[in-house]
Design goal:
Elements: H1 2-8, H2 23-38, H3 47-60, H4 66-81, H5 84-94, H6 101-126, H7 136-155, E1 161-165, E2 168-172, H8 175-187, H9 193-207, E3 210-211
Antiparallel strand pairs: 1-2, 2-3
């Protein structure tokens, strides 16, 4: 995950010249980062890692490229679903006493501000009138995604989605499942029908999915 992170958000020294990644690369890396997050215990990441990733994904929601905004929206939804933002906020709040208390309180306040900012960004993108992308299809896809994210952030309801792999349509009911199935389906698109069916069957058993 750190290698991917450095590709799109490098920490540079004074003598290092930044190479600006393309929007397509940023979107791909963010999606891959989110997929990897579903395979590990997010609670093992420290507060600094969460703060950096959440702040960066929030900044990507303001980019002109829709694929970047959508990949970042899914990543943030996953972070909320895993409870990582709340964990980070609680961790900072609980450490406000004693040495370093003021700094921890600032961190807690920063996280609360981020939550409000992200909610406003998501609400805006779910109703965008256009002007920040290319086609109407892209705009509708963005609106639909961020409407789902908005409902999840406000009410806690995850979107139910159907992802087709070969002749099977797998029903997902969490961001965790949706991100895993969507990315894996891209890798098997060139497989034979039988191979895809076997893969879909095994994936259904592994993730506890159902046919739609």
């Amino acid at each position: 995950m750190q290698i991917m992170w450095q590709l799109v958000h490098p920490k540079l020294g004074s003598n290092v010249v930044a190479v600006k990644p393309s929007p397509a690369m940023i979107a791909a890396v963010v999606s891959a980062w989110a997929f990897l997050l579903t395979t590990m215990n997010g609670w093992t990441l420290n507060s600094k890692d969460w703060q950096e990733s959440i702040s960066y994904f929030s900044s990507l929601l303001d980019k002109d490229d829709r694929s970047v905004r959508m990949a970042s929206g899914e990543a943030l939804a996953l972070i909320f679903e895993m409870g990582s933002l709340e964990k980070f906020a609680t961790e900072n709040k609980d450490s406000t006493d004693g040495v370093g208390g003021n700094k921890s309180q600032e961190g807690y306040s920063h996280v609360q501000g981020l939550k409000g900012k992200i909610l406003d960004q998501v609400r805006s993108l779910s109703a965008e009138a256009g002007g920040k992308g290319s086609t109407k299809k892209d705009l509708n896809s963005q609106r639909n995604l961020f409407k789902d994210v908005l409902v999840f952030l406000e009410a806690g309801y995850c979107p139910e989605s159907s992802v087709k792999i070969g002749g099977d349509s797998l029903q997902t009911s969490t961001w965790y499942q949706l991100i895993q199935v969507s990315l894996l389906s891209l890798f098997v698109s060139s497989w034979s029908g039988v191979q895809r069916s076997v893969f879909a069957h095994n994936l259904r058993l592994t993730l506890g999915l159902f046919n739609s």
